[in-house]
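Tip: read the tokens left to right.
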């Protein structure tokens, strides 16, 4: 009985990971609401208090995303077991035996791909808005950087939603 109880104990790192994830999710929701609501619903640019809220939660989200990238990178690395059909093809071509333990692993390739897409898309998302704040760029480039920020945010949001659905689906199994 003590073995089954100790199996569900969580470490401090697990609790930290959950806390950072929840703060990131909350920040993402606030950023999505403050960023998309005025543009998509009202047909206006983001102004006033919404800009202040958006700018306040953006660095929090970026920090959480950086911490999650470090904490989840090992779990989300690509392994040969992610593509079992490719691994079987290579085994047939090279006439080698497969590792059964690796093939029986529960792995979600879509979740790993979306995780790395989130990390990759966070760079142009953040850098585009940061660079637009400098006077080094003229009006044309500032508008271009704002467009890059906007369209990257659209794609980023879709990828985050897909990642969350895949994560919830994996937890339900």
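Filled-in amino acids:
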């Amino acid at each position: 009985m003590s073995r089954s109880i100790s199996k569900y104990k969580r470490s401090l790192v697990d609790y930290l990971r959950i806390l950072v994830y929840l703060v990131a999710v909350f920040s993402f929701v606030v950023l999505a609401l403050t960023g998309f609501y005025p543009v998509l619903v009202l047909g206006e640019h983001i102004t006033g208090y919404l800009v202040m809220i958006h700018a306040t939660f953006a660095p929090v989200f970026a920090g959480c995303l950086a911490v999650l990238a470090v904490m989840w990178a090992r779990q989300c690395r690509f392994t040969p077991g992610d593509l079992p059909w490719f691994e079987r093809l290579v085994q047939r071509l090279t006439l080698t035996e497969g590792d059964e333990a690796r093939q029986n692993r529960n792995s979600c390739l879509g979740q790993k791909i979306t995780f790395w897409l989130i990390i990759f898309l966070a760079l142009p998302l953040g850098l585009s808005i940061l660079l637009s704040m400098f006077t080094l760029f003229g009006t044309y480039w500032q508008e271009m950087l704002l467009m890059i920020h906007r369209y990257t945010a659209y794609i980023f949001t879709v990828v985050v939603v897909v990642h969350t659905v895949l994560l919830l689906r994996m937890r339900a199994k």
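The mean pLDDT is 84. The chain has two domains: 9-72, 108-173.
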